[in-house]
Amino acid sequence: MSAPVLQVRDLVVEYEGRGHAVQAVRGVSFDVHAGEVVALVGESGSGKSTTAHAVVGLLAGGGRVVGGSVRLHDGELVGLPPKAWQQVRGARIGLVPQDPGIALNPVARIGDQVAEVLRIHGRVRRAAAAQQAVEILRSVGLSDPEARARQYPHELSGGMRQRVLIGIALALEPSLVIADEPTSALDVTVQSRVLDLFDDLTARTGSAVLFITHDLAVAADRADRVVVMKDGEIVEEGLTAQVLGAPSHPYTRSLLAAAPQLAVRERVAPRAPSVGASPLLDVLSVSKTFRLPGHAGRTVQAVDDVSFSVPRGGAFGLVGESGSGKSTIARLVLQLTTPDSGTVLLDGAPVVDAAGRALLRRRSQLVHQNPFASLDPRFTVAKIIDEPLRSHRVGSRSQRRDRVVELLEQVALGAAYASRRPGELSGGQRQRVAIARALALEPDLLVLDEPTSALDVSVQAQILALLDRLRRDRALTYLFISHDLAVVRQVADRVGVLHDGRLVEVGPTADVFDHPQDPYTAELVGAIPGRRADLPVLTAAPLERSTR
């Protein structure tokens, strides 16, 4: 075998903390060869992104390589001076960053940003760079690339912006491409298209690819080899089929068991039977149109004549891509916005006045997508959970204090967490607090808007198991909104598929996913990552571990 394009040996990375150094990467070694895709996988804090940033010389402030070697072909990268790095990044190492929303300059036109990498490395002059930038945009599959080149990042969708970043990373055909969670912010179908494009372009150039991801299903589909990291160290590595098909390390096995795309999790029927139960929630022919700011007279049809029912004790999944109308329906259900037409009924009654809305606030609660943004950082956990009780004047101070402890126990945290603030909690712990707050008023309906999308796979599994247990124990009814079909399959009894504001398919979850009738549903199901991989399916019981 030829010499590796990238050779990492005994890499150690430290971050300077408060008076002491913290090792984020400890003795990591691996190779990446030309034309090979190596996936570096692990959860948040495993050291995978720090490793990638060390390779490309972009460690965050306070970070430094204190040991080991990183070689690109025959050249050592550790200790390279800043001016020398300017000749490496872009030309020899291309980087596709995680978030296209912040990686592009918001006040520079797309064409200028693509052309910049060509000019910086002296490949072409300014006029030629502008024309070549258009051809690069064409090569990454953007329609009307001349027009896209004149646009600003905010005028493009997330998938379009990610294609621009891929074009920039591959513009000079570097020998190594580092893709750091390049599609984690994208819908499943857009993710699939972007990764197909990335595969095609890197195969054409013969680049070595270091692919950083927490999504084992994506790694199973796209990688030749997998390197699993935990707590800054490599715990397992090898061919993808070997590592993900027959994992030897307990941590790898736990990651696979928690991945909804790669594992079949035991489902337990709710104690309150949903079959034949009367509807708790009825959404009847609702429509909603919004005016487009800055476009006089122009509107967008966010929701178009949507109807569905959720029986008491049932779980209804609402799936679709960004812009399909999912979150607008959640707002309509919770009366945070009013429909242009149609009706929302709770327990058979419409909400028609202030008293009805006040009752709705008690009987239905929202769990937000992002546990980092939905909790007030100034409040203690006790105050966060107590807030709805105080707002609705429920109980005395001592009764509310007891209720907070009870709710913390229900979400498997405990009274010790009452005095902590959100900044002292992990993502999974924050989401448990958000769920406890939602349960404070003993609602009948929980509207869960992408409640696990910001969480690592094992934490996600714990939250889903918690929601399953709470549903059974409390006969709760769920409206579960997500673009992750594998998660919805695990949670929902029935599912509705939204496309451009319309419900294109509704039915039992297994029927819709296994035998989709609408072409759009078939496209969504076909784009679920992990379906390409020829791996044995792991079976796991529900994970009900505490995140303490």
Automatic annotation (TrEMBL):
Q: Output the InterPro entries linked to this UniProt entry.
A: AAA+_ATPase, ABC_transp_ATP-bind, ABC_transporter-like_ATP-bd, ABC_transporter-like_CS, Oligopep_ABC_C, P-loop_NTPase
Q: Does the keyword ATP-binding apply?
A: yes
Pfam families noted in UniProt? ABC_tran, oligo_HPY
Q: Which PROSITE patterns does UniProt cross-reference here?
A: ABC_TRANSPORTER_1, ABC_TRANSPORTER_2
**Name of this chain's protein:** Peptide/nickel transport system ATP-binding protein
Organism of this sequence:
Cellulomonas humilata
Name one molecular function that GO assigns to this entry.
ATP binding
* Family named by the database record: Belongs to the ABC transporter superfamily.
- PANTHER family reported for this sequence: D,D-DIPEPTIDE TRANSPORT ATP-BINDING PROTEIN DDPF-RELATED, TRANSPORT ATP-BINDING PROTEIN
Q: Which UniProt keywords apply?
A: ATP-binding, Nucleotide-binding, Transport
Instruction: Tell me the SMART domains matching this sequence.
Output: AAA (SM00382)
Q: Which residues form the ABC transporter domain?
A: 6-256, 281-525
The opening ranks of the lineage are: Bacteria, Bacillati, Actinomycetota, Actinomycetes, Micrococcales
Under the heading SUPFAM superfamilies, the entry gives: P-loop containing nucleoside triphosphate hydrolases
- Which residues span the membrane? none
Name residues in a coiled coil: none
Would the keyword Nucleotide-binding turn up in this protein's UniProt record?
Answer: yes
